[in-house]
Structure formats: structure tokens, C-alpha cells
């Protein structure tokens, strides 16, 4: 299926040491959460490992994928640029490794969120937030008790952080937050 050693070497070669270590932590969190929620833990691990594969792409590399796949140019704006790596990364891993749609969508939406996220997509998004040395203990606890509550908790925190710094969260993420609140 996948050659994990080859993909791991690619990721290690493409990312800074800090970003690579984060990717390893996200992979472990994704695997653990997948086991907890009875999903494919190997698939979760590989998705966590490659979720930030395009994080350190140059503007030239990003523009190549934007043009090739006709990605909405709004992702070049200040509001959306922080999530561009997920969009570009999803196309990159599809092209390079022939990853399935669930993996690609999980990468695409791991920062932005999506109103139609699957449990697998949610696991990758929340693993990205708890797969770090300074993860919020409450967020970790919520991830294992109710992933939707964990997402609401995170998106509310993000919204407040942005508002306090005079920025705004993109509309897609606000839509996800609203949908999750209705579900809860």
C-alpha cells in the first residue's frame, strides 16, 4: 500500500527539524485517536505524518499547484494564507503518493475545517492541535471523550485569539463551528 519509510524520508527531507518533529507527534496522536475511535490507525498515522508536507513550500511551489489545480486565489490572501499548505498539500500527496480522498480531504481541511468532515477528518485536525509539546491538556482530554466538543473548544479558542488580535477567522471555519454547536 504505502512505503512508510520512503514517505517518512520524504517528509524529513522536505520539512525543518521542528516541523518534522511536529509531524511525528501528530502521526502518533492520530494513530492513538484512530485506535480509540475504532478507525484505521495505520491510515491515521500516515495522514498525520504528511499533513504538513506542503507547510514549507516556496511561493513558487504553491503557485505551481494553485495554477495546475485551479485552486481559488483567495488562499493567497492574508486571511487564508495560513491554511494554504493544507489545500496544496492535499493535491501534492494525491499526485505523488496516490493517496485516497479521505486522506487528501483530511490534509486539505486540517487547518480550515469543513462542514462535512468525517470522524477521520476530525481526528487529523484535532491531532494537529494536540500533537505538540505545549498542547492544551483540556483539549487532549476532550479529544478522547467527545471529538466534536474538542473541535468546538478549539475553534472557540481560535476565534477569541483572532478577535483579540484584530483579525477574523475565515468564514469556512465559522461555518464548521456553527454546525458543530448545533450537533452538540
What are the secondary-structure elements, in order, as H or E?
Answer: HHHHHHHHHH
Shape: globular
Q: For the report, how would you describe the main beta sheet?
A: none
Termini Cα gap: 37 Å
What is the tally of beta strands? 0
The whole-angstrom Rg is 16 Å
* Assigned CATH class: Mainly Alpha
Q: Let me know the average pLDDT.
A: 96
Describe the structure.
- The chain is an all-alpha fold and 184 residues long.
- 68% of the residues lie in helices and 0% in strands.
- It contains 10 helices and no strands.
- The longest helix has 20 residues, at 17-36.
- It is globular.
- The mean pLDDT is 96.
What are the main properties of this structure?
mainly alpha; 184 residues; Hypothetical protein af1432
Task: Give me the secondary-structure topology.
Elements lengths: L3 H11 L2 H20 L4 H10 L8 H10 L15 H14 L3 H8 L10 H12 L6 H9 L1 H18 L6 H13 L1
Summarize the structure in short.
The chain is mainly alpha-helical and 184 residues long. It is built from ten helices and no strands. The protein has a single domain (4-132), classed as Hypothetical protein af1432 (Orthogonal Bundle), CATH 1.10.3210.
